[in-house]
Amino acid sequence: MSRDHHKITEYDLHAYADGALDGPARAAVQAHLAENPAATKDVDGWKRQNETLRALYGHVAADPMPPRLSVYRIERKIRTRASHWGRMAAAAILLIATGAAVGWYGHGMFAPVPPARIGLVDEAMEAHRIYSSEVAHPVEVWAGEKDHLQAWLSKRLARPLNVPDLRADGLALVGGRLLPAQGGPAAQFMYEDDTGHRVTLYIIPAKEGREISFRYAKLDRLEAFFWTDEAISCALVGDLPRARLQEIASRAYKQLG
C-alpha cells in the first residue's frame, strides 16, 4: 500500500505506535513520518506512554477478569433491575379497585395510568424505603416547625401546599423534606402512629392539569394510593392494611385540595 492510495490518519498512527501494523501499511506510515516531524513527535510520545503502562500494569494482563466485570453478571443485573421495574409498572397498571362505596374516588378506576404516574409511585416507594427507617434524620424539618415546612416546600414546588393533619387517623406528623424527582422537586411529609409504623406522603407538581382519581399499587410489603388534581400529584405510601391506607389517603386528599 502506498501513500498515494491511502491517506494516513490518526488511527493509522496509533496502530503504528501500538505495533499493530506490518507490511505495506507499516511502510506507508514510516514514509509519512519521515516527512512529518510533528506526527513523529506524537507517535514517539504514544510509544513512551505504552511503555509506561506496560511497566506499571503489564502484570495485570495475565490475571483473570474479576467476576464483577463479567459480561454475563452485568447483563444479569440489568435483567433483574428491568424485572423490578416491570413488576412496579404491572402493579400500577392493574389498578385494584378500592371499593364501590367511595363515590368520586371510584370513577375512572380502570382508566389507563400515564407513564408519569408509574414513575411517581416508584419514586415515592423508594423515598419511603430510604427515609422511613431512619432514626436520627428521618426528615429535614421537624413537625415543630410546621409553618416553615409548609411555606418552604410550597415555594420550592411553586404550588400552595397544606400539611395534612392526620391525627384523626392516629398519625402524628414527624416532619418533611425536599427531594429530587424526575424533572423537578418533590416534597415528602412523614407521619407515625403509636406503634412506630410510618406513612409518607410524596408530592410533585402536576403537569397534565387534569384530575386523576385514586389508584392503588403494591410492591412487596409496601402499598400506595396515588392521585392527581389540577396542581399536584400525590402518592401515600405505607406498610399498612389497604383499607386503612385508603382512609388516610382520602383524608389527605380532602385537606390538600
Topology summary:
Blueprint: H1 10-17, H2 23-34, H3 37-57, H4 71-94, H5 115-132, E1 141-142, H6 146-157, E2 172-181, E3 184-192, E4 198-205, E5 212-219, E6 222-228, E7 232-238, H7 242-256
Antiparallel strand pairs: 1-2, 2-3, 3-4, 4-7, 5-6, 6-7
Write up what this structure looks like.
It is a single chain. This protein has 257 residues and is an alpha+beta fold. It folds into 2 domains: 53 residues, no CATH class; 186 residues, MucB/RseB, C-terminal domain (Phosphorylase Kinase, domain 1). It has 7 helices and 7 strands. The chain has a 7-stranded antiparallel β-sheet, sandwiched between helices. Helix 1 packs across helix 3 and helix 4 packs across helix 5. 27% of the residues are buried. About 9% of the residues have low confidence.
Question: Could you list the spans in which at least 5 consecutive residues all have pLDDT below 50?
Answer: 93-116
Strand ordering within the main sheet: 1-2-3-4-7-6-5
**Which fold name is given in CATH as the topology of the largest domain?**
Phosphorylase Kinase, domain 1
Write down the overall geometry.
Answer: elongated
Structural class: alpha+beta
- Supply the number of helical segments: 7
CATH fourth-tier homologous superfamily of the largest domain: MucB/RseB, C-terminal domain
Major β-sheet annotation:
7 strands, antiparallel
Count of distinct structural domains = 2
Q: What CATH first level of the largest domain would be assigned?
A: Alpha Beta
- CATH architecture label of the largest domain: 2-Layer Sandwich
Radius of gyration: 30 Å
Helix content: 40-55%
